[in-house]
Amino acid sequence: MTRFLNVIDGEFVAGSGDAFANHFPTTGEVIGEVSAAGRADVDAAVGAARAALKGPWGRMSVPERVALLRKVADGINARFDEFLAAEIRDTGKPRSIASHIDIPRGAANFNVFADQILTASTETFEMATPDGRGALNYALRTPRGVIAVVCPWNLPLLLMTWKVAPALACGNTVVVKPSEETPATATLLGEVMNAVGIPRGVYNVVHGTGPGAAGEFLTSHPDVDGITFTGETRTGEAIMRAAAHGVRPVSLELGGKNAGIVFDDADLDATLEGLGRACFANTGQVCLGTERLYVQRGIFERVAAGLAEKARGYRFGDPFDDATTMGPVISAEHRAKVLSYYDRARAAGATILAGGGVPEVGGHGAGYWVEPTVWTGLAQDAAVVRDEIFGPCTHIMPFDTEEEALALANDTPYGLATSIWTTDLARAHRVSKAIEVGIAWVNCWFLRDLRTPFGGSKASGIGREGGIHSLEFYTELRNVCIKL
Ligand code: NAD
């Protein structure tokens, strides 16, 4: 059984909190024990991160930091199979996904932000002064300090490094609080950090849950200078309240109830291929996933039937078997939540085109399985159409006009992402402009250029990360005004 320890000042240490079990979602069996950090451990981690700002890390030039970040990427790749196995055992996700997305992109984040910091510029303004000699303004990019990084469980390494890499590139130090469901890759990364020579205290990890535990201890810690969080909107609100003390900045990547809009001129094969992934990839546990689909009436039946066929085409099983295409959801608790929505859909009179229950999975019966599910026939105000379920399910509703589709898609407190399927370029532009989201995809989904702004509007978040936008959050700009 693996024991997951906290990483504090370069050491792997047991925490003073209550240890808890780590489960393999595929079978439900206990595969590890997580050593939870108590308040004193979080204090020690934040203290180590603060001290490291004044040590060799704080004195490094940008090229020196960049060289180390590239070594971190290489270090992950050198231990690719270990990271892959750790991620699979934490999440139950199939190797086919984790080996193509989670681990390679987790490593790539360090190279992407190494490139970014090398090429980032700041603005300069030359100004006139009454004496005719003028003045020159330029902005200096300085690290914010100690950054708290609080992460979810759905793409553990990828989403954690998406924040850790730019934070370190900018010269900060970090204390990471991985999800209690997925402690493994954050801990393993501590070994890589030590091995490649990242100075002690720069990368710290504290384990535990949120309220009254490591998450809250960290985000309410007065010596943390900024908080970056990905997770549920409700948690984001709690973190924002914690950050208000001491006026600390937050970057919040939160929940969604993302719509897909399919117009009758769409390329149907490509649309169904894209929507199949948007609705069911990673067992629907992708913040950008589609749980509401609006389809123009003329092609409604064909899209609904096509998507139901995609839903029925998945193969459950051992995630280490390359033939497996869908894993379980993360936990028994999350499965209960997803299935409660399956019940509500049935009770509300939904037509179930595919799924709707729990699949038979030979040899893995105690795992947290749910069927990919497609419904039609519910009203826009049904809980299944309004709430983020975070499971492999979608509801499809017909529409007649572009205005109607936009009104339905925008009728949500969330505003993370949408996908628009049409071959009419002018319409694609119009709808992208009118849709209230941070990310609008046209004829694609989850196509990510990491230099672009990433984040949500409305209740889906505050701020943008990615490219220069990450650097804006992880640095403090200081204007220098020189009188000439
Ligand atoms: P969650 O909010 O339950 O937990 C996320 C993290 O916050 C965990 O590490 C948890 O321990 C911690 N936490 C919980 N309560 C806390 C508190 N009071 N103070 C400090 N920390 C606390 O989210 P989850 O269930 O792990 O992840 C799923 C959610 O994440 C979904 O809502 C999904 O949409 C969202 N998500 C958003 C994005 C995005 O980029 N917008 C990406 C992935 C996931």
Automatic annotation (TrEMBL):
Residue span(s) of domain Aldehyde dehydrogenase: 13-480
Active site: 253
Pfam family, one: Aldedh
Record InterPro entries: Ald_DH/histidinol_DH, Ald_DH_C, Ald_DH_CS_CYS, Ald_DH_CS_GLU, Ald_DH_N, Aldehyde_DH_dom, OHmuconic_semiald_DH
GO molecular function: oxidoreductase activity
Keyword Coiled coil: no
Alphabetical keyword list: NAD, Oxidoreductase
EC number(s) on file: 1.2.1.85
Gene3D superfamilies named among the record's database cross-references: Aldehyde Dehydrogenase, Chain A, domain 1, Aldehyde Dehydrogenase, Chain A, domain 2
Family under the similarity heading: Belongs to the aldehyde dehydrogenase family.
Record-given protein name: 2-hydroxymuconic semialdehyde dehydrogenase
Taxonomy of the source species: Bacteria, Pseudomonadati, Pseudomonadota, Alphaproteobacteria, Geminicoccales
